[in-house]
Design brief:
single chain; 395 residues; alpha/beta; Rossmann fold; Dihydrodipicolinate Reductase, domain 2; 9-stranded mixed beta sheet; 6-stranded parallel beta sheet; 12 helices; 15 strands; 22% strand; globular; binds nicotinamide-adenine-dinucleotide
Length: 395
């Protein structure tokens, strides 16, 4: 008889938006036990301490020394990813590292080297490529059931650029804007679906607001070695919202009112500097469970599938698209819907921890390992270069 696997003892580095979503997504799942967390903000730590019987630290460096932690979820800002991932590896901790893996390929290489030297496991994510509907469509493509993949078209229009931001989040040279924060979701989802090596990109990026002078929209064409192609369109300008085409179900699977166009911008009007920074922490930092009533952090049973906009995947024998409850398949026999039942509440969070646990136990190597994260960053950098040089960039 095989012994049941004990839950992975996980420390959370960063109790901001990403840390919060991870904690909500792991609630009620027995594959992980959250044993510690670190954040510079004392309020966020106190909120966390009220909900979890776990250690708290004011710096990631201290969290890395904890004996109660086997793996660390690095959910600090982009510019700290390399430092924190390398520090975790040097303390023998396995790592889940948020996207983007880092801001330069040299930093990705340094992380990969540190992980190999320490003999620990690394998973990059969770991007929306971990959403069950993306994984399920990838399985159908890999099975050959619908024939060869020809094209993927995906659109996401949301309010990203007008959520409260710190200055560096609006400065591309420091990792700000959509290239490093939002496009990785589309790049990873497309890469999981194609299962193929990227051949080239051709892109045009837009900066539409000089008060927030970083890229806020993108039109991108990706070609893969198999000949399959993908288009990615993204806009974070809070005008059209593509959740209108997703039955007004939001990114985290929450019900979304259909009459809020422009309201994220309106809320931010006249708010800048220190006030915007304070709003960023209070809006997105970890809040006590008892205070959470709706939105992306709604009760699990109120949520449907997470997604990142509208997508249609076209194969020789049919088309597919994610829906709020699963996937729709269109072929010569008509249309049918396949419901995906399990783990609807932020299912990507247990999924990313499971990918790490499988790599640690030797059950299966991590799919989104360091080389994967490096290749996704390479694609994002090629998008930036292609737009600047107005030409196709070969990878
Ligand atoms: N996968 C997703 O859906 C998703 C969602 C949101 C953010 N992210 C990613 O997660 C990362 C964090 O984004 P965010 O929006 O949560 O940022 P955030 O600013 O809301 O949270 C980061 C937290 O890390 C803390 N921190 C930074 N350095 C620290 C240190 N040395 N010691 C202790 N605490 C420290 C900060 O105080 C802050 O509270 C980004 O790289 C972003 O791309 C991913």
């Amino acid at each position: 008889m095989t012994e049941p696997t004990p839950p992975l003892r996980l420390g959370i580095a960063g109790l901001g938006l990403a840390g919060t979503i991870m904690l909500r997504g792991l609630q009620g799942w027995d594959g992980a036990e959250v044993t510690a967390a670190a954040d510079h903000h004392e309020t966020l730590l106190a909120n966390f301490a009220g909900d979890y019987d776990a250690e708290t630290y004011t710096d990631v460096a201290e969290l890395c020394q904890s004996n109660r932690v086997e793996a660390i979820y690095v959910a600090t800002q982009h510019q700290f990813h390399a430092e924190h991932a390398i520090m975790a590896a040097e303390h023998g901790k396995h790592i889940i590292l948020e996207k983007p893996m880092a801001l330069s390929l040299a930093d990705c290489d340094a992380i990969i080297e540190a992980v190999e030297r320490a003999g620990v496991q690394l998973v990059i994510g969770p991007t929306h490529s971990f959403d069950p509907n993306i994984e399920y469509m990838a399985e159908i493509i890999a099975s050959g059931e619908l024939g060869a993949l020809s094209m993927i078209n995906t659109w996401n229009f949301n309010d990203f650029l007008y959520r409260p931001r710190r200055p560096e989040e609006l400065d591309t040279s420091q990792g700000g804007g959509i290239i490093f924060n939002q496009l990785p979701h589309q790049i990873d989802s497309i890469r999981v679906l194609t299962g193929d090596k990227l051949h080239s990109v051709h892109a045009a990026l837009g900066v539409l607001d000089q008060a927030r002078p970083t890229e806020g929209n993108a039109t991108v064409m990706l070609r893969f070695e198999s000949g399959a192609a993908a288009s990615m369109v993204y806009s974070g300008y809070d005008r059209f919202d593509s959740d209108e085409f997703f039955g007004w179900v939001g990114e985290g699977g929450q019900d979304k009112p259909g009459d809020t166009h422009g309201q994220t911008r309106a809320r931010l009007k006249g708010v800048t500097g220190e006030e915007e920074k304070a709003r960023r922490t209070s809006a997105f930092g970890y809040k006590p469970s008892a205070e959470i009533s709706g939105g992306r952090f709604a009760a699990p049973d109120n949520l449907r599938e997470g997604h990142f906009g509208v997508m249609v995947v076209s194969c020789e024998g049919g088309d597919m698209r994610p829906t709020p409850d699963g996937i729709a398949i269109y072929d010569d026999d008509g249309a049918r819907h396949v419901e995906i039942p399990a783990g609807k509440f932020l299912a990507s969070r247990p999924a990313v921890v499971q990918e790490l646990a499988n790599a640690i136990s030797g059950k299966a190597p991590a799919r989104r390992d360091g080389q994967w994260g490096r290749a996704s960053l390479e694609a994002a950098l090629a998008i930036q270069q292609s737009s600047a040089e107005r030409r196709e960039v070969l990878l």
